[in-house]
Design goal:
By secondary structure, this protein is α+β, with helices and mostly antiparallel strands. It is built from 2 helices and 14 strands. A hairpin with a 5-residue loop joins strand 6 and strand 7.
Length: about 150
């Protein structure tokens, strides 16, 4: 399936920032922040789907433009995560708030490869992440969290 990756967020312009493949994403596999909540996320949709942009009036005046799942039912969200500062692997995420056939198909396509990874608790750990983990890297959602919240073998 041909897809598009569109950066999510609240922007000053309604222009979409889109990519054709995951490998085209800027710094793919590198976490620019030590917290999964502060990393880029992307709507993934079939390439033929038009991504809706919502206008959001600001209390202090002006307008921002939201790119999210609210008006984009044929999407999933992909947050790649990655290596942070040579000390941690920040968790990625794949999910959707939608349960229509297109979103389910996208989620299944993305999950198919991930499910081949080793399952540790509710996470799937890929071979490269596992090697880094064995080398002493933290596997975590946030380097600001105590180590007891890091992923650990059960």
């Amino acid at each position: 399936m041909s897809v598009q990756y569109v950066l999510t967020g609240l922007f000053e312009s309604a222009d979409l920032i889109a990519y054709r493949t995951a490998s085209d994403l800027p710094d793919f596999g590198i976490a620019s922040a030590g917290d999964a909540n502060h990393l880029p996320q992307y709507l993934v949709a079939p390439a033929s789907v038009r991504i809706a942009v919502r206008t959001v009036s600001q209390k202090k005046g002006g307008t921002r433009y939201a790119v999210d799942q609210l008006e984009n039912p044929e999407t999933i969200v992909f947050a790649p995560g990655g290596i942070y500062d040579n000390v941690a692997v920040i968790a990625g995420r794949i999910g959707s708030v939608h349960a229509n056939d297109v979103a389910k198909a996208l989620l299944n396509a993305f999950s198919r490869d991930v499910k081949k990874f080793r399952r540790v608790g509710s996470y799937f750990v890929g071979p490269e992440a596992e090697l880094l983990w064995q080398a002493g890297y933290r596997l975590t959602a946030s380097v600001g969290s105590p180590r007891e919240y890091d992923l650990a073998d059960a």
